[in-house]
Structure formats: C-alpha cells, structure tokens
Amino acid sequence: MATGRVDPQRRERIISAALDLIAEEGVAGVSHRKVAARAGVPLGSMTYHFHNRDELLREAFTSFSGTIIALFEEHLATATTPDEARKAVADLVHRLSDGNERELVLTHELYTLAAREPAYRELTRAWMHSSRQALQRYFDPSTARQLDALIEGLSLHRALETQPHERALTIEAIARITASS
Q1: Phi and psi for 3 in degrees, rounded to 5?
Q2: InterPro entries from the entry (predicted)?
Q3: Model's pTM, two decimal places?
Q4: Residue 86: pLDDT band by 50, 70, 90 thresholds?
C-alpha cells in the first residue's frame, strides 16, 4: 500500500513563503521555483496549488490584506464610543508604522501592483472598503474615508521618516478629521 504524504498546511506555507520572498526581493523576484524552495515543497506542488505566478501573487496579497484588515478590526473592536475609536485609530497608526518593515514593503508592493493591474486594484479596493466599514461603526462615511486615508498616510510617513512624528500629532490629526462626527 502506497503512503502519500498528507500536508494540509502546504498551501498556507507556500503563501507565507511567497510573502516572505516579496518582502525581501519584491514582486519581480517571485517565481514558482524560488517559492517552492523557500516553502520546502516540491516544485510540482506549486502548479497543483497555483496555476501560475499571477494566481500565487493574488492569493498571497489576499492573505496579506486579510491580516491587515484583521489588525484593523482588532484595534477597533473594543471601542464603544467615537473617543475610544479615535484612540484606537492612533494606536493603529503607531502599530502600523513602528518598525514592521515586512508589512510596509508588502503594502507598497501591493499598491504598486494595483497601480498597474486592475485585478490587484480590486483587491486594494476591497481592503479599503473593509477598513472604512470598521471606521463607519463610529464615524459617518465621508469621515471614515478621510480617516482611512489619514491612517495610510501617517503610517507611511512615520515608517519612512528618520525621526517619526510623536503620538500627539497623530491624535491632533485624527481629532481634526473627526471633529464634525
């Protein structure tokens, strides 16, 4: 009797390996061969799980955006008032910008791909929609849209600046945008 190895986590390992490779080498550095080697799976597994590189990239970025959406939800979950939501948003901005280079690079690799490819644009739109939905539990749709853009911008500026701005500036910016809500 032949015993084939069952590896129920293989697909997830491949996606994780692809994200690690994107973070290190950019989208241009991703190939089935490199991802298979990094994931420790046979090359044939790649085409079994992902028909082509584009499908692998879409799945990897879908997984990544889900992680960031979950982070968004986690920060906002305990807020019961707009003031608590403002504090949660400030916490989120600082969490997103405090040293996680992998997330920063993955976010911008996805944005770059989305600027060129409509399928990835749809993925980023879904991500933004989820973020705004979370914010709309506390703020009107227009304010949620502005606040979502502020989160992206402040996170990027803090992450890339040699001397990131202090929490007080984040809180002030959030207060200004949400003043009418």
Answers
A1: -115, 100
A2: Homeodomain-like_sf, HTH_TetR, Tet_transcr_reg_TetR-rel_C_sf, TetR_C_31
A3: 0.86
A4: very high
